[in-house]
């Protein structure tokens, strides 16, 4: 056995709060249950002497929170959506009554994030899936964050090109001082002495990510810039997947003005970017059912490009009269 030390920043969420009655007095020993809406994985807690509860290490997603306490009506809050790295606070007020009676709140009220100092923008799954992306590189959506500028230029923006997509100036900082995280694990690589992102997942594999531009907790500190924290999708109780093919062809391109003036053919390159994802509960017929317990998610992406570099150019040269004016002796 070889002992290893692994250092990682936590990318999962935290949910906490205080339970009180209508008079404002805290309610102790109340039983709290939190369940993930997609996987049905549940967590339980009991309020302490200060009426507080806390759930740690929660995957980003939608949750249902319910409480039980003798002498009070049951309370249910549905539609709680937790983002990557979020520390949400949900305080509850119980009403006197029978436990069999229940008060349910289903509105999407905003969650307060009062326990952490970091500030930034969460690029959620809907944004990742809906917005158009050149070469389908999810990290390029970081430009939506206020205070961040892409400084790597317009070249090498492919998901597998580490140079152009790694340089981001966050709040005026140096473009190569940022930290990249993938599910909480460091995702940085050093190439030619420069800090780069090591791996970029496909768009269909990204659940969401957060660009942290403000002050950070003590868990962040390996670099002097901002933090781009990516969360990968997880399998759920429902089988789901996707397939895609994005292509470029010369025959689909419009010709350039210069080529048209010379009656030349269109120039361009062929590109294919294709892949698929699949996820669900791990199931072995007659032996094991992973529903509500064990899940998997798999993603594959291929990229093929035939690059064409035209060698022809249009230029002009001085006429004989112009050359004589410059060099009368000649």
Describe the structure.
This protein folds into three domains: 13-105, Immunoglobulin-like; 120-232, TonB-dependent receptor, plug domain (Ferric Hydroxamate Uptake Protein, Chain A, domain 1), CATH 2.170.130.10; 235-330, no CATH class. Strand 15 (188-191) and strand 16 (194-197) form a beta hairpin. It has three helices and 23 strands. With 330 residues, it is mostly beta strands.
What does this entry show, briefly?
This protein has 330 residues and is mainly beta. The chain is built from 3 helices and 23 strands.
Helices and strands in order:
Blueprint lengths: L12 E9 L9 E6 L5 E5 L5 E7 L2 E8 L5 E9 L4 E3 L2 E3 L7 E4 L14 E4 L1 H6 L17 E3 L17 E3 L8 E4 L2 E2 L1 E4 L2 E4 L8 E7 L14 E6 L7 E9 L8 H5 L8 E12 L1 E2 L3 E2 L5 E12 L13 H7 L4
Parallel strand pairs: 1-7, 1-8, 6-9, 13-18
Antiparallel strand pairs: 1-4, 2-3, 2-5, 5-6, 10-17, 11-12, 13-14, 15-16, 17-18, 19-20, 20-23, 21-22
